[in-house]
Design goal:
Belongs to the universal ribosomal protein uL22 family. InterPro entries: Ribosomal_uL22 (IPR001063), Ribosomal_uL22_bac/chlpt-type (IPR005727), Ribosomal_uL22_bac/org-type (IPR047867), Ribosomal_uL22_CS (IPR018260), Ribosomal_uL22_sf (IPR036394). Keywords: Chloroplast, Plastid, Ribonucleoprotein, Ribosomal protein, RNA-binding, rRNA-binding. Part of the 50S ribosomal subunit. By secondary structure, the protein is α+β, with helices and mostly antiparallel strands. It has one domain: Ribosomal Protein L22, Chain A, CATH 3.90.470. The chain is 35% helix and 29% strand. The protein has four helices and seven strands, in the order E-H-H-H-E-E-E-E-H-E-E. The strands form three sheets. A three-stranded antiparallel beta sheet has the order 1-5-2. A two-stranded antiparallel sheet has the order 3-4. The longest helix has 19 residues.
């Protein structure tokens, strides 16, 4: 398997073996994908589903990773990727009448959240929009690794 290349602007958190159905968790995850961190917190705190609490804990963990490990501000974070995958199914036996037993299947899921810092993109866009206001003989052209005058 090939390892994923670490991005400079992405931070992730993973919750494994969460005792919940994949469909119930995906119902909540689909609502928060692509939103800002603050907006996502408000949505998760007000939604009436049981899946919101573990997703909220994973989101808090990803934001703490961003603040501690990379020094990002929480206001600049965006929920870039959020996915729910199926985990192993726990099987239990429930005793029934006349010495019989029924199998109970308890589903689990793995939830991963990737946050992206958008302040770098905003800084790049301001630099790019400033380029058209520069004099005509001074244009930023890429000659490989460094930017130089034309």
């Amino acid at each position: 398997m090939r390892k994923k290349k670490k991005s400079l602007t992405e931070v992730s958190a993973l919750g494994q073996y969460i005792p919940m159905s994949v469909h119930k968790a995906r119902r909540v995850i689909d609502q928060i994908r692509g939103r800002s961190y603050k907006e996502t917190l408000m949505i998760l705190e007000l939604m009436p589903y049981r899946a919101c609490y573990p997703i909220l804990k994973i989101l808090y963990s990803a934001a703490a990773n961003a603040k501690h490990n990379k020094g990002f501000e929480k206001e600049d974070l965006l929920v870039w990727k959020a996915e729910v995958n199926k985990g192993p199914t726990r099987k239990k036996l429930k005793p029934r009448a006349r010495g019989r037993s029924y199998l109970l299947k308890k589903p689990t899921c793995h939830i991963s959240v990737v946050l992206k810092d958008i302040s770098y993109y905003e800084a790049y866009q301001t630099l790019y929009t400033r380029e058209k206001y520069l004099p005509s003989n001074f244009r930023l052209k890429s000659s490989g690794a460094i930017w130089d005058k034309k």
